[in-house]
Amino acid sequence: MNGILPLWKEKGMTSHDCVFKLRKILRTKKVGHTGTLDPQVEGVLPICIGQATRIAEYLTDAGKTYEAVVSIGRTTETEDAEGETVEQDISYKKVTKQQLLDALATLTGVIEQTPPMYSAVKVNGKRLYEYARKGETVERPSRKVTIYSLELLSDEEVYEGNEITFRIRIACSKGTYIRTLAVQIGEQLGYPAHMASLVRTASGTFSAKNCVTLKQVEEAVKEDKINEIILPIEYALSSYPFIEITQSIEKQILNGQILPIHALLKENDKIVFSKGDKALAVYVPHPSKEGLMKPEKMFPELS
Questions:
Q1: Domain ranges of the chain
Q2: Which residue among 38, 89, 155, 224 is the active-site one?
Q3: What is the pLDDT of residue 154?
Q4: CATH fold for the domain made of 240-302
Q5: With contact defined as beta carbons under 8 Å apart, do 70 and 191 qualify?
Q6: Percent of the chain at pLDDT above 70?
Q7: d(CA 101, CA 61)
Q8: How many CB atoms lie within 10 A of CB 120?
């Protein structure tokens, strides 16, 4: 069993919970997720099975799309609705649509974020949430992330009240904290804020329309239809150029040899060599030998 299972993670489960359950359902140990989703977040979580675990890092590194509800008027320890209130502004607020759009525009592009204390980022060998649970605060390294687009989904012209909320859609790079982004939006507007809810609607080439629930996976196994919902490794690699191998280089590719660089690697960071539409190897420019390329991933069992 090799491929990607596009799972819709439901609320209340950790990403590891999903992997644990799928190992039992599919009766295979070679199962891995492609980036954690907090328990209170639902959405797209591609699961790698068999040889597809070799490309899990590609899916983890891929861009993500989210839909979030931002709440203006209160910040929390965790920067989401689950945490204890840190600061609250109960004044009557009035924010125009244009003010919101201006705030979102300011946070589009390359921005800097400081990971929240309640996060899995490691500092001095310990995860930040381990410090936070003990009431300890440590210096956190800031990071640069890219917000490709930040779209206002709510269409009111004026948002007013003691606490105001609105929906946004975010397309972003790996490592972006939407909780922190919600706080940053509040800062642009001059108020405390937190993320009220979050759904991941896409991860790389996988979207909500591809996804199945754990219950649907169980039913597919019972009905012997699991292969109908597991997508091939090639689907996950579809954003890279595919090159059908010729007989002259087939043996070299299958042996994972270093070869003269392919012209397509001058404008792409990876290329996929395939045979009969089956991926055999992912090649990248050689890091130290100019003009050459080397295999980064091999899939011998698929050939």
A1: 3-62+204-235, 64-201, 240-302
A2: 38
A3: 95
A4: 2.30.130
A5: no
A6: 97
A7: 28
A8: 11
